[in-house]
Every structure is written in structure tokens, then in C-alpha cells.
Write a structure and sequence with these properties.
It contains 16 helices and no strands. It is mainly alpha-helical.
């Protein structure tokens, strides 16, 4: 068997290339979708299997996972889809939206850096309302799924909405940002770091989400006081370990798979969509790594440690 021929066929596979292109165009949606599936399935199962943790603490942690996945997907999609669609229009017809100087002078890689940052930055921009709604919905999920006769759940959360009033002129608005000289200069300066944009934005967003969630949980009137600390500890531990482990694993995998990426570039060198495929890979890799750690490996450890920290704090407070 000719290994090089097999590798070439795989790297030229139309399904693979089409998938990478879709991930490139809808990176935020891909990340949110991955989080939704795993937060509704793998993470709750892992949490529920954690030994030596009070049942109600496990239920709150599972409710938090379910709410987080639903809110992240719902809010991000409401904002991401119009922006991703608007950027795609600019991709197809830059002369229509961008001024002539931008089309002439802005390098393709810098342009990709700007648009990729815009798309992936949606998660960061929607982090605060997402965290607020997640915490507000936790008691509702507890009431609807984890029914406890001794536990009276209060009213439904306020019907706050987070909607973007996007119109057909969104592409023109985004084009004006790309036309900005300061934005272009910044993109040209950091364009060689485009492969790490998804990873860094994911990390910053996770820190913001965890911080806001901790504040909202502490202030919530609908979450039992004796369950708040364990839930906050669980979120903080999960985020810290995920970021440390995610960055470490991503660096190792990126170094180990460098030759494969070079081979992929060589095989598809003449393809006009190569930059999109590379962007898709750079989104896919850290998304799967962070998700695998956060939703698969980590829940049992974070839930167990949160329980121990909560018990220790209770002892310290009573002594």
C-alpha cells in the first residue's frame, strides 16, 4: 500500500474539505454546537457518576451544564449567524463592500485575521448575558428535571432577552470596520498568530463566563445558600484546569501534527480555498481539545474537589 497516496486521497477528500470550509465560515456556531451536545450528554453523565458527592450538589452541577449549553448555543446563534453570513458576503464580493485601498493593500492573511477574530469574538461579547441567563435557569431545570418534593422552586426567571437588531446592511457595517486603517495595521502586525486566535478567544471567554456566573450564583435568590459554594467552586476549578490542560495539550498536539499540516498544505497547494481549510483546522483542533477536557475528563474531578472544598469551608465557618 502506498502511504503517500492514501494520505493524499484523505487530504483531498471532498467531505473533509467541505467540513473544514464550513467550520471556517461558522467557527462560533461549530464551537457552540459542540458545547451544546456535550453539555447535554457527556458532562452530566460524568458529574452524576462522581463518587462521594451529595446528590443535590450533583444535580445543581448537572443543571448548570444543561443551562450553560442551551444558553450558549441559543444566544450565540442569534448573533453569530447574521454576522457569519455578512462576512461570507464580503468574502465572495470584497469589491462591493470594501474600499479600493483595502482591497489593494490588505493582505489575505490579515483580512482572515480580522474576520476570524470578529466571528469568534461573538462568544466573548455574549458572555455576560449568557452567564446571567444560565444562572437564572438553573432553578428551573432543577425543578423540571430533578424534582424534589421538599424543594420549593420559585418563579421563572425574568424574561430578559438578548437580541441583535441585524439588518441587510450588516455587511456594510463590518466592511467599515475592516476598512479602518488602525484595524488593518493591527491585523498586519499579528496576522502570523492567526492559528491561535480561536484558542485565545475561547480562553478569555471562558474566564469571563466563569467570573460572571460566580457573581450571579452568589447573588441568586433561587439557588439554595448551602449549594452555592460547591457550584461556584465547580465552575472555577473546571475553567482553571481546562485552560491549563487545554493550552498544554494544544501545544503538544500542534507540534506533533506539524508535519501533517505541512503535508496538507502541499497536497492542496493549488486549491483557492486552502486558507479556509487551514482556518477550519485551527478552529477544530483547540475546540475539540478544550471540549474533551471540560466535558469529558474534568467533570468528575472538579465536582469531587468542589465538594471537598465546600465541606472544608463549612467546617472553617462553624469553628
Amino acid at each position: 500500500m502506498n502511504i503517500n497516496k492514501v494520505t493524499t486521497n484523505i487530504f483531498k477528500n471532498k467531505t473533509l474539505l467541505s467540513g473544514l470550509e464550513k467550520i471556517s465560515e461558522h467557527g462560533t456556531s461549530f464551537i457552540a454546537g459542540t458545547s451544546l451536545v456535550l453539555s447535554l450528554t457527556l458532562r452530566p453523565l460524568s458529574i452524576n457518576s462522581t463518587p462521594n458527592v451529595e446528590k443535590e450538589n450533583r444535580q445543581y452541577a448537572m443543571s448548570n451544564s444543561i443551562c450553560s449549553g442551551l444558553m450558549k448555543f441559543g444566544i450565540i446563534e442569534a448573533v453569530a449567524l447574521p454576522i457569519e453570513s455578512a462576512i461570507k458576503k464580503i468574502d465572495k464580493n470584497p469589491q462591493k463592500y470594501l474600499n479600493s485601498d483595502t482591497v489593494k493593500n490588505l493582505s489575505p492573511r490579515a483580512y482572515k485575521f480580522i474576520t476570524q477574530t470578529m466571528k469568534l469574538g461573538i462568544g466573548f461579547l455574549t458572555a455576560i448575558p449568557k452567564s446571567m441567563l444560565t444562572v437564572a435557569l438553573i432553578p428551573v431545570i432543577m425543578d423540571k428535571i430533578f424534582v424534589n418534593k421538599n424543594n420549593k422552586m420559585s418563579k421563572m426567571p425574568d424574561k430578559d432577552t438578548f437580541r441583535g437588531n441585524f439588518t441587510g446592511g450588516l455587511s456594510n457595517g463590518i466592511a467599515k470596520i475592516i476598512d479602518n486603517k488602525s484595524i488593518q495595521n493591527l491585523a498586519e502586525k499579528y496576522k502570523n498568530h492567526d492559528k491561535d486566535v480561536a484558542k485565545h478567544i475561547t480562553a478569555v471567554t471562558d474566564v469571563l463566563l466563569t467570573s460572571v456566573a460566580a457573581i450571579r450564583i452568589n447573588k441568586s435568590n433561587d439557588i439554595k445558600e448551602n449549594r452555592k459554594r460547591a457550584l461556584i467552586y465547580n465552575n472555577i476549578i473546571s475553567t482553571v484546569i481546562t485552560l491549563i490542560g487545554g493550552y498544554g495539550a494544544d501545544s503538544i498536539i500542534k507540534n506533533k501534527t506539524g508535519m501533517f499540516l505541512d503535508k496538507f498544505k502541499d497536497v492542496n497547494a493549488g486549491n483557492p480555498k486552502l486558507s479556509k481549510y487551514i482556518e477550519g483546522i485551527n478552529i477544530l483542533r483547540p475546540a475539540l481539545i478544550f471540549a474533551g477536557i471540560y466535558y469529558g475528563i474534568l467533570p468528575i474531578l472538579s465536582t469531587f474537589l468542589a465538594e471537598k472544598m465546600d465541606k472544608k469551608s463549612q467546617i472553617n465557618m462553624s469553628s
